[in-house]
Amino acid sequence: MSKLVIVGTVAFDAIETPFGKTDKILGGAATFIGLAASEFNVDASIVSVVGGDFPQDYLNLLSNRRLDISGIEIVEHGKTFFWSGRYHNNMNSRNTLVTELNVLADFNPVVPEKYRDSEIVMLGNLHPIVQSSVLDQMVNTPKLAILDTMNFWMDHALEDLLNVIKRIDVITINDEEAKQLTGEHSLLTAAKKIHEMGPKYVVIKKGEHGALLFHEEHMFAAPALPLEQVFDPTGAGDTFAGGFAGYLAKSKDLSFENMKNAVIYGSAMASFSVERFGTERMQDLSSNEIHKRIQQFENLTQFKIN
Q: Is residue 146 classed as helix, strand or coil in its secondary structure?
């Protein structure tokens, strides 16, 4: 089993969808990534920052999932990062209502000594300079560095983003972000351009339409599992990344063929995440449920041409 470092936000979210609304609940990219990765019993550490207002119960929730939380800095007199959003009826678009950076504004991640030789690094959505600083702390070049980003950094920190993209092996972004980053309308052409920027593997997330994996001249398409109801898609992309990274950390096989499996596991974990608000669904998953969901994906994609 490979050691895994997860860097990203541990936060409060308040969410409104056609199915209801929440007050402040547990959220953040690193939280979703960590909870998904923990399902693979990996040796994982979360590197993040919270304020003195962050409940000990939430920290206990993470540590009880065998996640190392020594890299979560607690700023006693600070406030935890907070995001609030409202989803439209189609659940594919949303409006950000509130963003309060709070302690995240001055976040300088410190990777615990024990994890500075980790084979896999998962860089959640943060400022590219922060992501680069994590790679600088690793004593060896990770066998696999995975980066997630978003259009905000393309708009406001493109040069820094391009610099960190040169240093990573896998990038996970959604289809609109891939088009914006490359200026290309075709996702196939966009993936080729992103390869030229540095990453060996490109994962393009397409929400309810699945995900695409690109490596050199190879491509793999994974479906999204059709669901009767989607309550909250907020953490789906991060949960996908956590399942993807967690599976690879457990299997220690970084080949393209095994990354196909990782994409399916990531998609399966994301399909659970959207079934309730915030991290609720990820908190009570069973290994049996995950196995059944993987079987559903397998049945969904099996066919025979006569």
A: strand
Closest-CA residue to 277 (of 240, 239, 233, 224): 233
Taking each helix axis from N to C end, the angle separating 29-38 and 56-64, rounded to the nearest 10 degrees, works out to 30
**CATH code, residues 3-301:** 3.40.1190.20
Mean pLDDT along residues 162-169 = 98
In angstroms, rounded to a whole number, what is the distance separating the alpha carbons of residues 203 and 146?
10
Task: Compute the distance between CA of residue 26 and CA of residue 298 in angstroms, rounded to an integer.
Answer: 32
Q: What token pair was written down for 42?
A: 């990996």
> DSSP character for 203?
E
Count CB neighbours of 238 within 10 A: 30
Ordered by start, the domain boundaries in the chain are 3-301
In the numeric block, the tokens 């696999």 are attached to: 144
Mean pLDDT (the chain) is 95
What's the CA gap between 70 and 47, in Å, rounded? 8
pLDDT at 100 over 80: yes
Is 182 a residue whose pLDDT tops 90? yes
Rg (CA), the chain: 18
User: 195 and 166 in contact (C-beta within 8 Å)?
Assistant: no
In the structure, what pLDDT confidence band is assigned to residue 302 with cuts at 50, 70 and 90? confident
Q: Which CA distances in Å does 199 have to 144, 153, 193, 243, 282? A: 10, 17, 10, 19, 29
3-state helix, strand and coil shares in percent for the chain, rounded to the nearest 5: 40, 25, 35
261: which 2 tokens? 């499996």
The strand pair at 94-100 and 3-7 is best described as unpaired
Q: Are strands 211-215 and 218-222 parallel, antiparallel or unpaired?
A: antiparallel
Tokens 């950076």 found at = 101
Distance, CA of 257 to CA of 281 (rounded, Å): 29
Q: Nearest to residue 239, comparing CAs of 3, 6, 1, 2? A: 6
Instruction: Name the nearest CA neighbour of 236 among 74, 40, 38, 27.
Output: 27
